What we know:
The chain is an alpha/beta fold. It is built from eight helices and seven strands.
Amino acid sequence: PSDGKVTFMGDDTTGAVAEVMCRKGLSRTFQIPLPFPRLTALENVMVGARFGANHASKKPARQRAQEALDFVQFPLDTATPAEQLNAVQLKRLDLARALASQPKVLLLDELASGLTERELEPLMKIIAKIRDQGITILMVEHIMDVIMGLCERLAVINFGNKIAEGPTKEVSQDPKVIEAYLGVEDED
């Protein structure tokens, strides 16, 4: 950073590398999933289980990885190489890998991007289950059904500037948000 500092769970983490942040309990998914293509689905998720916040867990990484894949309802044999997965399968794999690290805070970067309406509902149920387990979720998302269905609070950014923040329903009705994301009708 060029200014200020970043703290996480009371610790100064300014400039900390991803591995350190993961061990502290911060995990994330990517807008475009980045698996290890030649590893199997299970092996990909084992990476998260091995390097996450609870790397000293009594449960083996393989068991925690399998539990994470089961939790996200991964639809294929876990021995399937990641390079053979389609978009929705990759999103679930990425989410399982993030969860296997046992995060306190989970960053979701447009997890719903590119999914069909039919694929969104089951994914939203999984995200709600994560939230209900007490994991804090910070989500970047553009699909309004996902935002309105899952988020308790919103911060809306337009061209790098925060234009609104607060409870979801209140922010969704803010005139600045409506103008920025829905446009305004001409009076002609």
